[in-house]
Structures are given as structure tokens and as C-alpha cells.
Automatic annotation (TrEMBL):
<dbReference type="InterPro" id="IPR035595">
    <property type="entry name" value="UDP_glycos_trans_CS"/>
</dbReference>
<dbReference type="Pfam" id="PF00201">
    <property type="entry name" value="UDPGT"/>
</dbReference>
<dbReference type="InterPro" id="IPR002213">
    <property type="entry name" value="UDP_glucos_trans"/>
</dbReference>
<keyword id="KW-0808">Transferase</keyword>
<comment type="similarity">
    <text>Belongs to the UDP-glycosyltransferase family.</text>
</comment>
<feature type="signal peptide">
    <location>
        <begin position="1"/>
        <end position="20"/>
    </location>
</feature>
<dbReference type="GO" id="GO:0016757">
    <property type="term" value="F:glycosyltransferase activity"/>
</dbReference>
<dbReference type="InterPro" id="IPR050481">
    <property type="entry name" value="UDP-glycosyltransf_plant"/>
</dbReference>
<keyword id="KW-0328">Glycosyltransferase</keyword>
<keyword id="KW-0732">Signal</keyword>
<protein>
    <recommendedName>
        <fullName>Glycosyltransferase</fullName>
        <ecNumber>2.4.1.-</ecNumber>
    </recommendedName>
</protein>
Length: 470
């Protein structure tokens, strides 16, 4: 085949899109015959997706073989439904069909690569008789856990809500240890239409022709080996990272520059991470009592119906009185942070994290050990994997969850618990964790080099794509 194209369809929002773009770049580097078109989706109030794609397209290193096509927002879409995001995706099927039809006039479409939440479009791939692949933006353990939960639901007819707050442990093949029900994603065990939507999506993973996973063999060998020989085939192509972020505050960078090497603990909780006033005060007390140098990315919950997270105009409205004065010189509180730029800084020696998968891969890439403070999605599972399965993190909590439904008072993690984890993370007790993370840092970088495990998986994926359509 002289030239061919893959069409990628990522989930709404920036984090899935960034991982998709970085994956596309890696594949384009592997084979000069390949072109990639990415169909983007965004909410009516969201401008970050268009800004990001414009930045990528305008960069000096932009590939002419990478194209972005924005999908229109359906006029009849309403954000009121509990499953509104999935409705928005499902309503794009006609637009996706039209774009694929148009693109295939210029180049042969060798496959459609779908985000785990966009598997509805397998139907479009089948209409055009081309393979459908899944790009799984989390790790292999999570993929295996999702497949296990799907089997509980659809093969064993289990009602998953019975496991909410349960002490049951599951023998999930991709984990070497039993997995507690308390670290399952809340969406699975809360019940209702959202749980049904998630499970019906993940059920369709088995219909795809292959699954690219944002991980590398050396990080999850047990999980990847447990899926060897299965259909669809799993391709561990990561770690997939966007290393282009910068610190948004020059004075924060200057402050870091003045700190001793590996002396600063960085606290950051992702694009949707924020806490109420009471929890913020417990974190502040923990930092002050720990005596550790810190850089804290602190943001507040948005108003109902608006953005989930917004910036503080005055940190004094939420922090304990006098906190900023008492910790002056020892710590800094900032708003949104360029996380990669912070983790890459030589002064940073620990990371209090929500354990999102992108953050997990970034912490490994830069060799910065984590203290786990998961909030939502599969983050509790990631925290369990890091602490119990791999011994690569200190535990604040494994099963802390934000209740987006607002049905119960927010759980508060007390200062002493946070302080103890930070001191273990930054002190002599964390030596073994730091050693393991440093070892994995080297393996992660080697995986992407020519001849490395992920380099080989990327090449194998392209070879299999070509073989299926030849």
C-alpha cells in the first residue's frame, strides 16, 4: 500500500485529545505512508479544543499528514440529561459517516481509531468495511478491570450497585492482588443511566480489531501478559505524553529555581480537581506541620451549571488565616500549573496527585514519586495499582471519592493523614519507593526508543493495520 489514512475520534475535552494527538505523532513517525485525520468534539462553552488544535497546526514541527476536522455541535443537544455527554457523541454518527465518506475519496481509509467512549462509531467502520480500533487512554490494568466488570454485568448478570461500599475483593486476572470493590470507579457501582451507558460502551471493546493502550510493557507486565493471545490484540504503545507545557507564573519558576534539588512536594489535582473549604484547610495544616517545601496548585469548585473548576481571585478566602505569611519562603500557592514543567524541574521530589492516568505516566517519566489522593473516574484503581500492586507510591487514600451527585456530605481527609504521607514521601521512609520510580523512569524512556517495547508495539500496530486492509 503506497499511502493510507487512519481516522481518530477522541472523547470530548482536552485530556483525551492531547493523548490522541501525541499517539498520532508517534505513528506518523513510524511510517511515512500514513496520514491521520482527527475528528474533534467540544461542548458549546468550551474553547480549549479549538485553541489546542490551532496551536498544534501552527507549530513549526506540524506534520502536513495530520489533519483536524471539528465535528459540529448538534442543535438539538441539551446538557440537562444525566447522559448528555454520551448523547452528544451518539448524535454525531451522521456527521462522522459523512466525513469518512469524504476522506476516503482522497486516500484509502485503513481504519477508524476510537476513544473508549466513542465506540458507537464501530457501526460506521462496519458500514465502510474498514477495521475499528480502540485507543484506550488509561492503562492495561484498567482495561482488564473494565473487561472483568463487563463480564460480571453481562455474563454473570450481577447488579453492580450491590458492591457499593462493599468489602468484597475481586480476583481480576490483570492484577496479581485481589481488587477491593471500594476502588472500583463510582460510575460502575452507583447505578442508574450513567452506569448503564459506561458499561454498554465498554462492552463493545471486544468488537474492535485491536486496542492501543497508553502504557508500556515494563510498567504493567502482569496485566499485559494476562491478555496475551486474546482477541482483540492489545498494543502497549506508551507512555504517551505531551511534554510541551510551561509554568504559567514566572515567579513560581524563579521560586523553584531557588530551592534545593528534590526538596519540593508538588500538589496538583488535574483539570477537574478541587476541594471544598474544609478539605483545603486540612491540606494547608498538613503542609504547614510537615515542614516540607511545597508548591500547591489550588483551584476552587465552579458554580453549578458552569465550569467544574475555576481560579481563586484571593487564596485568603479559603486558606487558614495567616497561612501564606507563616509559610512564606517555604511554600508557594498558585492557580493552574503547567504540570509537566513542574514535574520536570530538578527541585521537585514528590507529587501529591489525584492519580489520573496522564499524571501517573508523567510522574513515572520524570521519576517523581506520588502520594495518592484520588478523586473520581478510575483514579482509585490507579492509586491501588501504584501503592499495592507496584509499591511505587505512598498512600494518603486509595478509596477517597468526590460525590458529584451531592447526595452525601463530603468526606474529609484529616491533616494528620496527609502530613504523614508527605513526610514518608519526602523522607527516608520513601527511599524504596523512590528507587522503584527511578528504575521505572529509565524503563519508560527506553520503551519508546528504537527497539524498545513500545516502539515495537507501534510498528506492529501499523503492520497489522496494513495487513487487515491489503
Amino acid at each position: 500500500m503506497d499511502k493510507f489514512e487512519l481516522v481518530f475520534i477522541p472523547f470530548l475535552g482536552l485530556s483525551h485529545l492531547v493523548a490522541t494527538v501525541q499517539t498520532a505523532k508517534l505513528l506518523l513517525d513510524r511510517d511515512g505512508r500514513l496520514s491521520i485525520t482527527i475528528l474533534t468534539m467540544q461542548l458549546p462553552s468550551d474553547t480549549t479544543v479549538d485553541a489546542y488544535t490551532a496551536k498544534i497546526s501552527a507549530s513549526a514541527t506540524a506534520s502536513p499528514r495530520l489533519t483536524f476536522v471539528p465535528l459540529p455541535i448538534p442543535r438539538d443537544w441539551s446538557p440537562q440529561s444525566k447522559t448528555s455527554l454520551f448523547d452528544l457523541i451518539d448524535n454525531q454518527i451522521t456527521n462522522v459517516r459523512d466525513i469518512v465518506e469524504q476522506r476516503r475519496r482522497d486516500l484509502p481509509i485503513a481504519g477508524i481509531v476510537l476513544d473508549m467512549f466513542c465506540l458507537k462509531f464501530i457501526d460506521v467502520a462496519r458500514e465502510f468495511d474498514v477495521p475499528a480500533y480502540c485507543f484506550f487512554t488509561s492503562g492495561a490494568c484498567t482495561l482488564g478491570l473494565f473487561q472483568y466488570v463487563v463480564s460480571l454485568k453481562f455474563e454473570e448478570n450481577k447488579e453492580l450497585s450491590e458492591f457499593k461500599n462493599s468489602d468484597v475483593e475481586f480476583p481480576v486476572p490483570c492484577f496479581s492482588l485481589p481488587v477491593p470493590a471500594k476502588v472500583l470507579p463510582a460510575a460502575f457501582v452507583d447505578g442508574g443511566p450513567i452506569a448503564d451507558a459506561f458499561l454498554n460502551y465498554f462492552k463493545r471493546i471486544s468488537e474492535t480489531d485491536g486496542i492501543m493502550v497508553n502504557t508500556f510493557y515494563e510498567f504493567e507486565p502482569h496485566a499485559i501478559d494476562s491478555m496475551a493471545g486474546n482477541n482483540p490484540m492489545v498494543y502497549p504503545v506508551g507512555p504517551i505524553l505531551d511534554l510541551s507545557s510551561q509554568l504559567n507564573e514566572d515567579d513560581a519558576k524563579k521560586w523553584l529555581d531557588d530551592q534545593p534539588e528534590k526538596s519540593v512536594v508538588f500538589l496538583c489535582f488535574g483539570t477537574m480537581g478541587s476541594f471544598g473549604k474544609e478539605q483545603v484547610r486540612e491540606i494547608a495544616l498538613a503542609l504547614e506541620n510537615s515542614g516540607c517545601r511545597f508548591l500547591w496548585s489550588l483551584r476552587k469548585p465552579g458554580a453549578i451549571g458552569g465550569k467544574l473548576v475555576v481560579e481563586y481571585e484571593d487564596f485568603g478566602e479559603v486558606l487558614p488565616e495567616g497561612f501564606l505569611d507563616r509559610t512564606k519562603g517555604v511554600g508557594r500557592v498558585i492557580g493552574w500549573a503547567g504540570q509537566v514543567a513542574v514535574l520536570a524541574h530538578k527541585a521537585v521530589g514528590g507529587f501529591v496527585s489525584h492519580c489520573g492516568w496522564n499524571s501517573t505516566m508523567e510522574s513515572v517519566w520524570f521519576g517523581v514519586p506520588v502520594a495518592t489522593f484520588p478523586l473520581y473516574a478510575e483514579q482509585q484503581l490507579n492509586a491501588f495499582q501504584l501503592v499495592k500492586e507496584l509499591g511505587m507510591a505512598e498512600m494518603i487514600r486509595l478509596d477517597y471519592k468526590i460525590d458529584f451527585r451531592g447526595e452525601a456530605p463530603p468526606e474529609i481527609v484529616e491533616a494528620g493523614e496527609i502530613e504523614g504521607a508527605i513526610q514518608r514521601l519526602m523522607g527516608a521512609e520513601g527511599d524504596e519507593v523512590r528507587r522503584k520510580v527511578e528504575e521505572m523512569r529509565k524503563k519508560g524512556r527506553a520503551a519508546l526508543e528504537e527497539g524498545g517495547s513500545s516502539y515495537k508495539a507501534q510498528t506492529l500496530f501499523i503492520e497489522d493495520v496494513i495487513r487487515k486492509i491489503s
